[in-house]
């Protein structure tokens, strides 16, 4: 079974989940006429849009990197991918919760929900990667060992990191939200500026 | 006519139908501030999201398996595929009905609607498969006979099974809903754990 | 410029426009508890869903047929395609209007809006086809002349036909609505049962 | 890293952003029965739909042109592309604002938000192009120098032009809105009628 159709399906889910994020901003603006004030007031919606869009974009790019090292997929890999995509497609929901409630009593519940979602994205992403590499199960014949080790090293800490930020959010929701944003920006720049490119050919 | 473009269109519908499921969760949460309690209260929305996402993911994977055995498509096959996709794209609607009404008077109507939708997915899926294999009409020259028989054996009982669960839902909506969920999980694990892989190369 | 990327974009728009149709059914059901009665009452929503989904599916299949005869695209062809896709992506809106208003005073406005949309789909579809074939501008070297003539003959009357049904809808909205449905079913069966396949290889 | 998967993802976002525009028209119509009058009253929604759909279609076609000149992508290019797509996916939001408020007190805020969005689309589009061509970094070996210069010359003024229209909108919202529309139509016809085709093979 080749990897093509999985990529088409995955890219579809990534693209739709990212593009649906704008509906959350839409919901926030309401339908009243003083939109000048309102447009400034809903800044958390823009922040949420940017952070979640970047996060999905980075997941997409990383998925790209993983698939480049893989020669074929089996049924278990397909099912693990469905679990990953199920987590990614969930992201618009906690994004809206955080944007809507970061300034009221719901901030704790909202940021923790966001954190659980991101943790489960990180876990399922690790699951597809380590399932594929264990014993070279689905790897390409010519996969570069250094590259594979580099990917493993980069992805392994992600679940714990997201879990840690989730615990921070439990104590201080705004700090947690800021860390989710900082983390997305870090991934964005790290890979571009600090030579991550070498690790993936 | 090659199979490529049908796959692109089908993958698009599968990906969108699955990703739209999150809008149902969104609708349930409402816009009030006590989201902590609310987030726990809407657990049927999460269950519905998971079951329907997995179901669509499995249909997608099975469609993948079917297309791998097919060499070309004709106009009738295209039109039967449109009917399948029409049924799949309908899934978000009964999913929301079940999530919203499983705990009130509407449970019977909701689960029966879900069951009718799933039955019609199973019927149209069988239609494309048996149209393609009858007399080897659209099969690849080198299609493996054992694989083809394996697929036929696996898909044939699905419409009756979904119809049976629908009848169960008519008597006891919660039991029906639980069976739809169990059935999705069964397909997920069966194919991964019990060697279904052999049957599809 | 090759035809690949146009097909990906077009298939995306077709798939999304078709899948969004379910949101119209969703809107109709409302959020009250007597969903048993309500589910029966909104039958025009199901009819609208089926007719518009089939219509988009048929346009997709025909687009497929057209692209098979074309060797390359130029900028004008791309822009005409954007106009076609703009008309197709509009379909969910009049579909909802008809489903919602076919039984009240808005029936005339709703069905006429549906008709204008379908007429403009037919006009832009003809525009891309006749732009491509005039003087063999974008046709494949090996395009079969009989096939090309067959396609021209089939598509040419569509704008006038849809315009005629629109005029019928102006006089009798229910008759117009029924004719739009009958027309979609006709295309579905005609191509499958009466040998249209021969005309497109 | 090849350009294929970026194109699939980008085409997905373009297609979804364009198709979601219809939801804005849907929101405007409301659910009352005098839809005849209402359908005429919401003409700015249709105008907004047309202008933004054309704009996204033109961005898609231009992205196509750019990718044709590029041999490979690196991580920085992917991240810049995510920023471009983030701006494009934002378009439905200001489109709705303009359609809804062009005739009330919110016209200034709405058109300026539209202008900022378009300016940021133009900036990120320039970023991916000039990142790719600087020192021939990602260009194809056989990229035609005249074509590359032609593209650079065409895209470079766009950010300033959109910024200028945004400033006009600050003074006179209706004039700004009209200019956004005129600009989209200009691009549509310019490329089709005045031989822009030569510039891109």
Q: Could you walk me through the main structural features you see in this protein, from its secondary elements to its overall organization?
A:
The structure is a homotetramer of 201-residue chains. The longest helix of chain A has 27 residues, at 107-133. In chain A, helix 1 runs parallel beside helix 4 (75-90) and helix 4 (75-90) packs antiparallel against helix 6. Chain A has one domain (4-199). Chain A has helices at residues 4-29, 35-41, 43-68, 75-90, 92-101, 107-133, 145-155, 158-171, 173-193, 196-199. By secondary structure, chain A is mainly α. Chain A is elongated and about 60 Å long. Chains in contact: A-B, A-D, B-C, C-D. At the A-D interface, helix 1, helix 2, helix 3 and helix 9 of A face helix 1, helix 4, helix 5 and helix 6 of D.
Helices and strands, with pairings:
Four copies of one chain form a homotetramer.
Chain A: H1 4-29, H2 35-41, H3 43-68, H4 75-90, H5 92-101, H6 107-133, H7 145-155, H8 158-171, H9 173-193, H10 196-199
Number of helices of chain A: 10
Q: Give the low-confidence spans of chain A.
A: 192-201
- What characterizes the major β-sheet of chain A? none
- What multimeric state do the chains show? homotetramer
The proportion of strand residues of chain A reads: under 5%
Summarize model confidence as the mean pLDDT of chain A.
88
Q: Overall 3D geometry of chain A?
A: elongated
Greatest interface (CB-CB under 8 A), with counts per chain: A-D, 40 and 34 residues
Helix content of chain A: over 70%
**Number of strand segments of chain A:** 0
Structural class of chain A: mainly alpha
**Intertermini distance of chain A:** 24 Å
Compressed to H and E, one letter per element, the order of chain A equals HHHHHHHHHH
Give the domain tally of chain A: 1
**Rg for CA atoms of chain A:** 18 Å
């Amino acid at each position: 079974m080749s990897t093509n159709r999985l990529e088409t399906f995955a890219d579809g889910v990534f693209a739709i989940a990212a593009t649906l994020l704008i509906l959350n901003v839409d919901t926030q603006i309401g339908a009243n006429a003083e939109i000048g004030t309102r447009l400034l007031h809903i800044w958390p919606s823009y922040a949420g849009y940017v952070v979640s869009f970047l996060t999905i974009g980075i997941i997409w790019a990383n998925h790209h990197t993983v698939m480049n090292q893989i020669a074929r997929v089996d049924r278990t890999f397909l099912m693990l991918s469905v679990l990953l995509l199920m987590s990614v497609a969930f992201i618009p929901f906690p994004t809206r919760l955080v944007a809507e409630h970061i300034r009221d009593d719901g901030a704790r519940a909202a940021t923790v929900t966001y954190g659980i979602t991101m943790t489960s994205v990180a876990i399922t992403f690790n699951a597809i990667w380590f399932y594929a590499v264990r014993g070279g199960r689905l790897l390409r014949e010519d996969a570069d060992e250094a590259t594979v080790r580099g990917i493993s090293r980069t992805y392994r800490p992600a679940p714990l990191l997201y879990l840690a930020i989730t615990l921070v959010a439990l104590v201080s929701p705004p700090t947690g939200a800021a860390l989710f944003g900082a983390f997305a920006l870090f991934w964005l720049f790290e890979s571009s500026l600090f030579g991550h490119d070498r690790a993936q050919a």
